[in-house]
Specification:
Layout lengths: L23 H19 L3 H14 L4 H12 L3 H13 L5 H13 L3 H14 L4 H13 L3 H14 L7 H12 L5 H14 L3 H17 L3 H12 L7 H13 L3 H14 L4 H14 L9 H11 L6 H22 L2 H14 L4 H13 L11
Helix pairs in contact: 1-2, 2-3, 3-4, 4-5, 5-6, 5-7, 6-7, 7-8, 8-9, 9-10, 10-11, 11-12, 12-13, 13-14, 13-15, 14-15, 15-16, 16-17, 17-18, 18-19
């Protein structure tokens, strides 16, 4: 998206420029052709209005309003053509700061950064309070990869400008500049949040959410990471299962176990054949119910076991199975006092890890207490 747009005002309407005509015999004819062209501008018929404006300058080569319209037309289509028409317009119009600004803008868009900087600097010397000149300077310095000077001039732009004139792109640019500086992640996030509030394009908004997610993760601000991960995932057709997983994991790392349980529940609903949702939902519930008083993690660990037992050769599956068997065994021992059931789960551990010392020890203790009503020490 371009950062600068030409003013749509015509000479005499806000630009204080008056066309100078040297061919009075053609003046009325050129003006009539120009007015016909304007009719088709309103109808957005570019083929016809371009034709009429070209006829107008053919009739009177000094008729500046037609040059301006052609410049404006090509501004979005062909920058060299736009520049050519603008220089003709400027040649046949009275000098003005607005004309100089639009020339600087064209120089920037044409990637002639140094001439753009020279022109903008000259204009700032004449009008140091003109905020948009600092913005043009900043973007030009960015074009030269001079991020230090770009940040300085963007800072002046925000200091001198009006809040109603700021664009989402302005805040995004400032956020990106802060992102390049170690220790300035908080400032980058503040500007990305401002960009979110100004941006109407949902695709761009999701890009900001992603930036905010990554910065939060870098800062180990897991609660914020979860917040922005959720915004990035929700309603985003481009989001993946990994984005959903990371959303839940951020809640878990932030010790927001209820929210983590909800997100991983959504993961299970969407990807019922994958173990990740079951495992992390079990973990979230085990942390929330740390004394096993309510046994809320048990159904999730049992669901996990059902999924993992389909492939016990997988290293991750094996690791998670041992954890799940151990957790259920501890629950059966300490909460339900069902020692035979606990022993059965511990034996499942030995079936896939015969040398597991913990399982061997707990089985030995529990076997001595089978039938006893006394609580058995141990568990997991």
């Amino acid at each position: 998206m371009r950062s600068y747009l030409p003013c749509r005002a015509m000479p005499g309407a806000g630009m204080a420029t008056v066309p100078r005509h040297t061919k009075p015999i053609h003046r009325h004819y050129a003006a009539a052709l120009y007015q016909l062209g304007k009719i088709f501008v309103a109808q957005k018929n570019d083929q016809l209005y371009v034709n009429y404006f070209e006829q107008a300058i053919a009739a009177d080569s000094t008729y500046s309003p037609a040059y301006y319209e052609l410049y404006y037309h090509y501004y979005y289509r062909d920058l060299p053509q736009a520049m050519a028409y603008f220089l003709k317009y400027q040649q046949h119009s009275d000098p003005s700061a607005e004309n100089d600004y639009q020339l600087a803008d064209l120089l920037y868009l044409s990637k002639n950064y140094e001439p753009a900087i020279d022109k903008a600097t000259s204009l700032i010397n004449q009008d140091p309070s003109n905020a948009r000149l600092y913005k043009l300077l900043a973007y030009s310095y960015l074009g030269l990869n001079d991020t230090t000077t770009a940040m300085q001039t963007m800072t002046e732009y925000f200091a001198k400008g009006n809040d109603s004139a700021y664009l989402a792109k302005d805040f995004e640019t400032m956020a990106e500049l802060y992102s390049t500086q170690p220790g300035k992640e908080d400032s980058a996030m503040a500007y990305y949040e401002k960009a979110v509030n100004r941006q109407q394009d949902s695709t761009a908004v999701y890009a900001y959410y992603k930036k905010l997610t990554d910065l939060s993760k870098k800062l180990k601000s897991f609660s914020n990471e979860a917040k922005w991960s959720g915004k990035y995932y929700s309603g985003n057709d481009q989001a993946t299962n990994l984005d959903l997983f990371n959303w839940g994991l951020a809640h878990f790392r932030a010790e927001e176990y209820v929210q983590a349980d909800t997100v991983f529940g959504s993961y299970i609903a969407k990807y019922p054949d994958q173990a990740f949702g079951y495992y992390w939902r079990a973990r979230a519930n085990s942390m929330q119910d740390s004394t096993m008083e309510n046994g809320t993690a048990i159904p999730h660990y049992k669901n996990l076991i059902e999924i993992l037992e389909k492939d016990t050769s997988n290293a991750t599956n094996k690791k998670w199975l041992i954890e799940a068997y151990g957790y259920v065994a501890a629950y059966e021992t300490n909460k339900e006092k069902d020692y035979p059931e606990a022993i059965a789960y511990l034996q499942k551990i030995l079936a896939i890890d015969p040398n597991n010392k913990d399982a061997q020890r707990y089985i030995s203790v529990l076997e001595k207490n089978v039938g006893s009503k006394q609580p058995t020490p141990g568990g997991k």
